[in-house]
Amino acid sequence: MSKTQYWLIKSEPSVYPYAQLEKDKQTEWTGIRSFEARNNLRAMKPGDLCLYYHSNEGKAVVGVARVLTLATEDSTAPGEDWASVKVAAVIPVKAPVELATVKATAALKDFPLITRSRLSVAPVTAEHFKLILKMGKTALPK
Fold first, then answer.
1. Coil, strand or helix: which one is 56?
2. Which end of the chain is more exposed for a tag (fewer CB within 10 A), N or C?
3. Whether 66 contacts 88, CB under 8 Å
4. Residues in CB range of 66: below 8 A, 6 or more apart
5. Residue spans of alpha helices (H) in 82-123
């Protein structure tokens, strides 16, 4: 079994908030139109964990999602070279971790929200993933 990888995925709360993912249980993560983000989707494996970030409005890590599938063709762009994965809600973050807090935390100076702020799907180190959960007063379910 491969080692769990960690990711940051972003959605505007007016488009698809984490609460909607909780209600839906799972969704296809579609609409990514950046080559680098697409390649990150293609690197995801079932069981990988994602920090779910509300972009533009709210600007905070608000939940954790789990990757359910390997990347497939994006159903919103048939015949084009875009990818999507299915993700499921795992747990909301008890205390959302705001962008300002991330920026003010020295240990997160290399976190993708700071270094790659426009990238919608980005890899995250295990250390950063665990620190964000700790800052959010959240423990993963056993």
1. coil
2. C
3. yes
4. 47, 48, 49, 50, 87, 88, 90
5. 99-103, 112-115
Residue 101: phi, psi to the nearest 5?
Answer: -70, -40
pLDDT in tens, 12-63: 999 999 999 999 999 999 999 999 999 999 999 999 999 999 999 999 999 9
**Cα 126 off chain centre by:** 13
Pairing of strands 49-54, 6-11: parallel
User: In the structure, what pLDDT confidence band is assigned to residue 1 with cuts at 50, 70 and 90?
Assistant: low
The reply to whether the predicted model has a pTM over 0.90 is yes
Residue 124's DSSP bridge partners are 6
Q: Which of 8, 79, 10 is nearest to 44 (CA)?
A: 8
Cβ atoms of residues 102 and 128 within 8 Å: no
Going through 14-126 in order, the beta strands assigned E by DSSP cover 26-29, 49-54, 60-67, 72-73, 83-98, 121-124
Inter-residue contact 66 to 26 (CB < 8 Å): no
